[in-house]
C-alpha cells in the first residue's frame, strides 16, 4: 500500500531535507524511524526539498510498504522513534496513483522577519532579521511584478537542477503583527533558493535601498547577478503542497497557528 505523511520539523539542526552521507538530514532521521517501526527498509519521496536551516509545517512524503498498520499507528509509532524536532502530524492511506510531488497543484512557503534594532534571541534561527524599518507599500508594489508566469532565472541558485526557470507565482502576501513581518508565497513550483533570493530583493526595497520598480529590472535581467544577496534561511517555512480534494490530504497542521 501507499502511505502519505504530513511532517513538521525545525530545520536548524539539519543539513536540509535530502539524504546525505553524514546522515544529518530530515529524510535520514525520518526514514530511520519509519524503518524501525515497520521492521523493514522504508524509502520516502517528498513534495519539496528544503535547504539547511529551513523549517517545515507540513512537508508531505509518500512511501510504499506491505506492512499493514492503521493510520494512527503510522503517526504514533513513527513519532516514538523520532527526535523531538521532527514529528509526523498525520497519515493517509492512498492509491498508487498519488505522488506527493507530481500530484501537487501548488506549493506554499512563509518567511517570517523580525524588524528590530536588536538581533533575535529566543527566536534565533526561527526568524529572519532586519534592523531597519520596512516600507510595506513599497514591498507590496515590488512583489506584484513577480505574479503570474515568469522566468525566474534572476532568483535561481547556480546549482538549481530544475529543467525550466519558468514558474507561475500565484500569490505573495505581506503582513505585519507587532515587530514581526510575514511574507506568504504560493506558486506551482519553486527554484532552488528562489524565495530566499526574492526575499533579499524585497528587503532591499523595504529598506528603501532600491525603488519598487527595481524588482522588474531584476526579473527582466534573467541574471542572478542582478539580484540582491541570498537572504538567511532562518525564517523560511515550507507550509506544504496543495492537492486536489480527491486525494483527501489535510491542508494544514496545528503548527500553522504558530506563525504570526
TrEMBL record:
Substrate binds at residue 109. The active site is at 51 (nucleophile). Signal peptide: none annotated. SUPFAM superfamilies: Pseudouridine synthase. The keyword Isomerase applies. It is an enzyme of class 5 (isomerase). Keywords: Isomerase, tRNA processing. GO terms for biological process: tRNA pseudouridine synthesis. Belongs to the tRNA pseudouridine synthase TruA family. Formation of pseudouridine at positions 38, 39 and 40 in the anticodon stem and loop of transfer RNAs. This is tRNA pseudouridine synthase A. It comes from Rhodoferax aquaticus. The gene is truA.
Amino acid at each position: 500500500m501507499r502511505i502519505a505523511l504530513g511532517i513538521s520539523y525545525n530545520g536548524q539542526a539539519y543539513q536540509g531535507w535530502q539524504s546525505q552521507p553524514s546522515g544529518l538530514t530530515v529524510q535520514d532521521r525520518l526514514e530511520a524511524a519509519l524503518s524501525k517501526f515497520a521492521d523493514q527498509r522504508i524509502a520516502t519521496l517528498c513534495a519539496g526539498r528544503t535547504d539547511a536551516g529551513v523549517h517545515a509545517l507540513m512537508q508531505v512524503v509518500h512511501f510504499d510498504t506491505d506492512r499493514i498498520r492503521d493510520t494512527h499507528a503510522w503517526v504514533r509509532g513513527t513519532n516514538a522513534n523520532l527526535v523531538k524536532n521532527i514529528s509526523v502530524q498525520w497519515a493517509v492511506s492512498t492509491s498508487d496513483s498519488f505522488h506527493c510531488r507530481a500530484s501537487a497543484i501548488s506549493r506554499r512557503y512563509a518567511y517570517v522577519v523580525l524588524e528590530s534594532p536588536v538581533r533575535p534571541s529566543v527566536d534565533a534561527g526561527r526568524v529572519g532579521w532586519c534592523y531597519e524599518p520596512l516600507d510595506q507599500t513599497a514591498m507590496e508594489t515590488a512583489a506584484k511584478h513577480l505574479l503570474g508566469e515568469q522566468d525566474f532565472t534572476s532568483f535561481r541558485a547556480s546549482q538549481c537542477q530544475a529543467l525550466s526557470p519558468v514558474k507561475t507565482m500565484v500569490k505573495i502576501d505581506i503582513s505585519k503583527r507587532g515587530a514581526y513581518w510575514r511574507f506568504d508565497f504560493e506558486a506551482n513550483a519553486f527554484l532552488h533558493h528562489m524565495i530566499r533570493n526574492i526575499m533579499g530583493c524585497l528587503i532591499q526595497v523595504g529598506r528603501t535601498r532600491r525603488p519598487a520598480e527595481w524588482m522588474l529590472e531584476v526579473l527582466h535581467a534573467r541574471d542572478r547577478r542582478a539580484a540582491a544577496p541570498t537572504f538567511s534561511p532562518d525564517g523560511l517555512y515550507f507550509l506544504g503542497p496543495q492537492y486536489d480534494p480527491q486525494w483527501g490530504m489535510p491542508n494544514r497542521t496545528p503548527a500553522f497557528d504558530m506563525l504570526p
